[in-house]
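Aim 2 progress update. The chain analyzed this quarter is reproduced below.
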Amino acid sequence: MEIGDRCPEASPAAYDDPPMTKRVRVPDIVAAKGKRRVACLTAYDAPTARIVDEAGIDLILVGDSAGTVVQGKADTLAVTMEQMRYHVRCVAPAAARALVVADMPFASYQPDDATAVANASAFLADGAAAVKLEGGRRRRAGSARSSSGGSRS
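Predicted structure tokens:
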């Protein structure tokens, strides 16, 4: 073997799954649980979303970490719905295959269920296929009510 030659067993094609060409949907992610790894990366803009999508990543998270990564803030608490909607509108059109997940920023779902549903619906209208919120068991009931307000899968 010469320098630069590749061992066929080490070739990515030897262990990669066949490329997925259809759009990833929420039921696809649920079906993958326990069967295969699901890859997720964060994007805040169209060029990054396009690269991530073309790499075959399953999920693209439009994270409220945009506050620290893009805006240079000390934390994510001041990130607004308007700012997050802007980033979702940048990312969603560039993702032909990956499931786009919008991160609900602080105080965008905590006040009441109506606020949560309105803000989640705005993300869906902007092109997200799912939303992410934080809160554990206390949020479980509210998220169940929010998910019945409409879904795009």
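The first strand starts at residue 40 and ends at 42. The beta strands are 40-42, 59-62, 99-103, 130-132. These observations will guide the mutagenesis experiments scheduled for the next reporting period.
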